[in-house]
Design a protein that fits this description.
Layout: H1 2-25, H2 34-55, H3 65-89
Length: about 90
Amino acid sequence: MFNAIVQICGFLIIGAVVGVLARLLKPGKESISMGMTLVIGMAAALIAGVIASLIGVGSITELNFWGFLLAVVAAVVLLFAAESVGARKHPPAA
């Protein structure tokens, strides 16, 4: 039980770090909240863990270089997607 709690906390912390790193790496002004950035980072960490498991360079339950790198790339892609969806909902004022 304790091990599962530690893994979930680690996932949340790594996801938050990934979201912040992606936000720093992505050029341009950010139009989404920091909270949404953290959620995107957590989603990207989950996606990267699955991809790393599928290609055999890691596991969803472990932290390694390739999984972390994939998570940052996935987070940048998700940030672009979230901002493009938000831009369609709220066009810039003239």
